[in-house]
Design brief:
The chain is of the alpha+beta class. The protein has eight helices and 21 strands.
Length: 416
């Protein structure tokens, strides 16, 4: 790669990183999701991510469910109080559901297996209770009865296919402790419609070879549907603030501006059917918002650097783009944009006849206001001179006078 190409590439990359750092400090909009059972989505933003000027959009989606601690073979909701607007069955199983697909179909399948198992248990009890003096014919008859009962149990494990049958698809964002995962079946149909027709009785079956093995069955009852959603900011500069939710495509949504001291937002979900009116259930969102930092994300620093195999000391100007976490949480709070950042250096003095040299490298921020960096300088005394990288690599110490003055001022105030 020629010197010109390296210089052009370097000059192109630094503004890109700087723009990224600047965009990182722009006001952000975050989405916070709740399901009809007031369970939060596992990928909702953390409480300390917000900055003054950001916007939080809260969604209550009656058509989806999010993970809970439901274990293997269970539904993701109470079978007697199934959320009516949820689309599809949510079944929790192991990763084995990928290799041996599971599905759900109407009808009951465990009753026959339960009856057959009870009959087997009774016959095994008779066999084990025979005295040692029992004659051979009696023992043979008891053993044959146990063997026949086992065949009935094995046959009862498998059920005929029923219609409509819905395959269950694994959801990557629904994982539970002990390796259990969530599966959604019939994800385009509401539970209220499925309970109405074909009916409330459904079975979870698993394909074993060319047969369907019965796993569990359920008789569903419908719970309460979401009828309205509201929210109130209860702590912060914009408290108390009532928030009205709109509804689009079945999802309730509202946006709330975040202030520097916004603390809690209480979401209230109403369900019709109470004795004295709607049943209202609250969900509290805790927020630890930060003040928006007024610093420029592109830092200009005075630098002393050494080149020519550390034989020459020069003065330079270094430019580094950083993220807002660098100012709000410190240089060790994140990797890129905090502890590590790209550096452009402009060497202003040295032993060469070149007036200035431009360089590019990487900076390590160990403390606010101080940066250790290194890289390569480009440029020579004239066009005919060869560029020698062994003489132009540099290491340097950059000092940000603005940040350093602030740190010293804060330290002085602390001592007072």
């Amino acid at each position: 790669m020629t010197r010109l190409a390296i210089t052009v590439l370097t000059a192109a990359l630094l503004p890109l990183v700087a723009r990224t750092a600047a965009a990182d400090d722009d006001p952000q909009t975050y989405d916070f999701w709740l399901d009809p059972l007031l369970r939060a989505h596992p990928r909702n933003p953390k409480k300390d991510i917000y900055v003054d000027g950001d916007t939080l959009t809260i969604h209550v989606d009656p058509t989806r469910l999010f993970p809970d601690e439901t274990k293997d073979g269970e539904l993701g909701f109470g079978k007697a109080t199934s959320p009516p607007d949820v689309k599809g069955f949510y079944v929790v199983g192991t990763n084995a559901g990928v290799a041996t697909p599971i599905s759900i179909q109407p009808g009951s399948c465990t009753n026959a297996k339960t009856v057959a198992q009870a009959d087997l248990d009774a016959k095994e009890k008779v066999l084990s209770g025979l005295p040692a003096t029992a004659d051979v014919a009696t023992k043979k008859a008891a053993e044959d009865a146990v063997a026949a009962a086992k065949l009935v149990v094995d046959a009862a494990m498998f059920v005929p296919a029923a219609t409509p049958s819905f395959a269950c698809v694994q959801m990557n964002d629904w994982s539970v402790d002990d390796g259990f995962r969530g599966y959604v079946c019939a994800g385009d149909k509401k539970l209220s419609d499925l309970v109405a027709s074909p009916g409330p009785s459904w079975s979870v079956v698993q394909k074993v070879g060319d047969k369907l093995a019965c796993s569990k069955d359920y008789t569903l009852g419908l719970g309460l549907a979401v009828s309205a959603v509201s929210a109130k900011v209860t702590n912060g500069a914009n408290a108390p603030q009532e928030v009205t939710f709109g509804k689009q495509d079945g999802v309730y949504s509202a946006s709330i501006p975040i202030k520097a001291n916004t603390g809690t937002i209480v979401v209230s979900v109403a369900y019709p059917g109470g004795v004295d009116g709607d049943i209202v259930r609250p969900y509290t969102i805790v927020i630890q918002a930060h003040a928006r930092d007024a610093h420029s994300p592109v830092r200009v620093q005075a630098e002393v650097l050494s080149t020519n195999r550390l034989r020459v000391i020069s003065f330079a100007v270094a430019v580094s783009p950083v993220s807002h976490e660098y100012f709000t949480k410190g240089p060790l709070s994140c990797v890129f944009g905090c502890a590590l950042t790209a550096v452009a250096a402009l060497r202003m003095s040295g032993e060469d006849h070149t007036v200035v040299q431009f360089g590019f490298g990487v900076g390590l921020n160990l403390a606010k206001g101080f940066q250790l960096n290194g890289g390569l300088l480009f440029g020579a005394a004239d066009a005919s001179s060869a560029w020698r990288p062994e003489r132009t690599w540099f290491v340097g110490l950059a000092i940000d006078p603005v940040i350093l003055a602030e740190v010293m001022s804060q330290s002085g105030n602390t001592k007072k």
